[in-house]
Amino acid sequence: MDIRNALTHPSGAINFPMLGTGHPGDSTMTRAKSVAALWAALLTQQNAYLVPRQHSMRRTLSLLVVVTALAGAVQAAPATQIGVVLAGSALDFWATMSKGMHRAADDLHVELVMRSPSDGMSLGPQPNVQLRMIDYLVKSGVTGIVLAPESLQGVATPISIAVPTVLVDRSSTDYNAISTVSTDNFAAGRTAALSLVPVLHQGARIAVLRLAPNISSTTAREEGFLTVAREKGWRVVIAPYVGYQFRETEAQVRKVLSGDVGRLDAVFAPNETTAYGALHVVEEMPVSTRPRLVVFDWRPEFLDALEHGMIYADVVQDSYRMGYQSIETLVAALQGHSPRPTIFVDVVTVTRSNRNDPAVRAVIANYSR
């Protein structure tokens, strides 16, 4: 379905050196050098002719007008614009992804136009708000879009956006896209559970703090974790949806865990907000009753929690690399290269023992504020 329908329904001539074209591959320095070379060619050509002073002055003024006009044209050459619509902006995850996107844009000489809703807005008070942002970007003239999609409500899908679209962070059947750049979320959920295998016994009591039912990335992580739990014979005694806002989520986590203090062996939190809320609740428990906490995503304060044993393991997505590769994939596609339909970016599992490993530090360093 087209996005617009979705929105309306819910000779003797001087040989000049070649100038930069204004395409993404032409840097500002390259174009400036081209203009300088043009000046040199013009002056050389002028000196080749011995003309009266008056004619020489006219020629110089004419050349000045030509070069000034050409230089102005070079400066005005528009850069390729890429539209970006994420699913939020406040989380460290999105901020770090944005850093990767901006670095890719600098490296590839394109401009980003970013329009992202507040975290959770599409899931609550403003459903389909991303569609309006996409429509704005397309009308603004972007040549492609990178989208972290949130579920659509009350419109016919899949939506066909008028420009090439790359999905980032999560897959979606709501949009037609040329590629998806993300974590292998099901496999990463299994990785989170497997970190507990050495310390849990059959029959261990587990809590899985689900985020929301309509977010494909966290749902896949939860299912990956639960698959291992079933394989190992662990008892999942708590598995509620606890929400996506920091304050709301922490309150819900406190409520659902309060009745099992001292009886839980492990807790899994599948994203930044659930991890943040779970950490605060576990910190309040007496040391002898704390379950092992396995979380997903990264915040700088999680390092201290790992060092002091409040977090047992943290599966960290490389959201910087994810952002970089999404821009890189779209730009390559705009240049005629066919992208892979699915591109997975590896995670790292951070523990107290490996937190200072170079590979781990390289990923979490991008989350610095």
Structure description:
With 369 residues, this protein is an alpha/beta fold. The protein folds into three domains: 28-76, no CATH class; 80-183 and 319-346, Rossmann fold; 185-317, Response regulator (Rossmann fold, 3-Layer(aba) Sandwich). 43% of the residues lie in helices and 14% in strands. The protein has twelve helices and twelve strands. The chain has helices at residues 3-8, 28-47, 53-76, 92-108, 129-140, 185-194, 216-232, 246-257, 272-284, 302-307, 319-334, 358-364, and strands spanning 80-85, 110-114, 144-147, 165-168, 179-182, 205-208, 235-238, 266-269, 292-296, 313-317, 342-344, 347-350. Helix 7 links the parallel strand 6 and strand 7. The chain is globular and about 60 Å long. The two termini are 40 Å apart.
* Domain tally: 3
State the major sheet: 6 strands, parallel
The first-level CATH class name of the largest domain: Alpha Beta
State the share of residues found in helices, binned by percent.
Answer: 40-55%
Task: Please state the overall shape, judged from the principal axes of the Cα atoms.
Answer: globular
